[in-house]
Design goal:
Layout lengths: L21 H27 L14 H14 L6 H27 L12 E2 L3 E2 H28 L2 H24 L10
Antiparallel strand pairs: 1-2
Helix pairs in contact: 1-2, 1-5, 2-3, 2-4, 3-4
Length: 192
């Protein structure tokens, strides 16, 4: 299997045989999903003065942040020498991803999980300027802070522990996603 076009060969995560490490991506996906969940919970603490477990799932992760983080890394890593391009592309890409996610969740369950209608320069309440700029800043953090930090730490974890951790986290995530597919998290303060 060759994913060499995706993984930069100078990256520590590049595997000469397969081009990638499955557990590297599973853990990185869930790391980004967790960081997104923490971000959303902190925002709710400040804006609503309440702890709210944001998102469709029940666990401490928001898959859209996991998918978005990985996607941005794959797409933008090669532009590491061009932070302005990273910012602009990430702002546009994440805005499209957030808009589509909002639309998809509303069509699937008939519920809006967020609404930016009161925010400056919003589009149908699904995206707004402030959040889009935040995603651009987030991409810069991914490329210049999180990935270098993660690669150094990941290499130090013994392979059996990485695999065990990856399997456990993946099974927990799958169980949560399966349950949420039937009964999504729609408690107080979660949906608009």
């Amino acid at each position: 299997m060759s994913d060499n076009w995706v993984i930069p060969k100078n990256s520590r995560l590049y595997n000469k045989t397969t081009g990638f490490s499955f557990f590297y991506y599973i853990i990185l996906f869930l790391f980004f999903a967790f960081i997104g969940w923490v971000w959303e919970v902190v925002l709710c603490l400040f804006t609503m003065q309440a702890f709210i477990n944001r998102g469709v799932l029940f666990g401490p992760w928001l898959p859209v942040y996991g998918a978005g983080g990985l996607f941005l890394y794959f797409l933008l890593f090669r532009l590491k020498k061009h932070p302005i391009w990273i910012f602009l592309l990430a702002t546009a890409i994440c805005s499209v991803l957030e808009y589509f996610s909002s639309w998809f969740l509303e069509k699937l369950w008939g519920i809006r999980w967020w609404d930016y209608s009161d925010s400056f320069l919003n589009l149908h309440g699904r995206i707004c300027l402030l959040c889009s700029v935040g995603f651009g800043i987030g991409a810069l953090l991914i490329i210049y802070v999180f990935i270098p930090f993660w690669e150094k730490r990941y290499e130090k974890i013994p392979s059996p522990i990485r695999k065990t951790l990856g399997i456990i986290l993946l099974l927990l995530f799958i169980a949560d996603a399966t349950y949420a597919a039937v009964a999504p998290n729609i408690g107080h303060g979660i949906t608009s």
